[in-house]
From TrEMBL:
Protein name: Carbohydrate ABC transporter membrane protein 1 (CUT1 family)
A GO CC term attached to the entry: plasma membrane
Intracellular or extracellular location(s): Cell membrane
Membrane topology: Multi-pass membrane protein
Family (UniProt): Belongs to the binding-protein-dependent transport system permease family.
Key words, A-Z: Cell membrane, Membrane, Transmembrane, Transmembrane helix, Transport
Amino acid sequence: MPDLAALRRRRQAIHGWLLLTPTLVMLTTFAFYPTVATVWTSLFSRGTRRRPTEFVGLENYQRLIDDPTFWLVAKNNLIYAGVTIPISIVLALAMALWANSKIPARSFVRTAYFTPTVLPMIAAGNLWLFFYTPGFGVLDQIGALFGAPSVNWLGQPETALWAVCAVTIWKEAGFFMIFYLAALQTIPPDLKEAAQIEGASRWAYTRRIVLPLLMPTTLFILVNAMINSVKLIDHLFILTKGGPSDASKLILYYIWENAFAFFDAPAAAAMTVLVLGVLGALAAFQFFVIDRRTHYR
């Protein structure tokens, strides 16, 4: 007689693999294969009609290291991430705490905070052009009331990147607020009642109870904000196109420019590999170091 236990285990294994197959197909098609293909492309030279591609090893990476524009773009992206990530998270938390409290027209406040998230990034960029346009924009009109001169917010290197950061913060804070708002509503009200009985102030309750309980949500938002800081380029096409003088150019826009404007796919692939490596290292640090402290393990 056949071993019934072994037959049962075999059926369970087949059933498990059948359940995993759709996910494996999707990951292979849209994640694993593109990653391997990108790494492979980065090891070849740029091909032309007269000069076909040839294997050059790490030469494309050496070109990036010697490229001053690449380092300027990397610096811009670090500033962009360093400004947009913490400000968006702090604003989202403040908005969620206010929207979760007992205030008049609470539903309207939540809707108003979330509305920018619904807008496509292209639409948001066009909307903010009405704020930044020199002489006619809302910011210049307000400044004129106080005698301030007209400022070309998007046309000068000193302000272009900061103007782009403002659009991103306005767009993302409402999105992150939704996660904080959902997390706040899972906190048992008994904790607040106990804190009030013990005579704890609102700030003490928020700092000692609410913020620690929100740490898993904060970690989740932090990971998403980091990913967004290297993938949001839609508004650059509308606002600055990376200018002036590459002052607002970010890494993904530079990758797109190399791949589709300069037709230098190997250089774009090399930059993509570097970005994936940095993001992978940061994600590993967050999940293996910060995550342990977040969940108190």
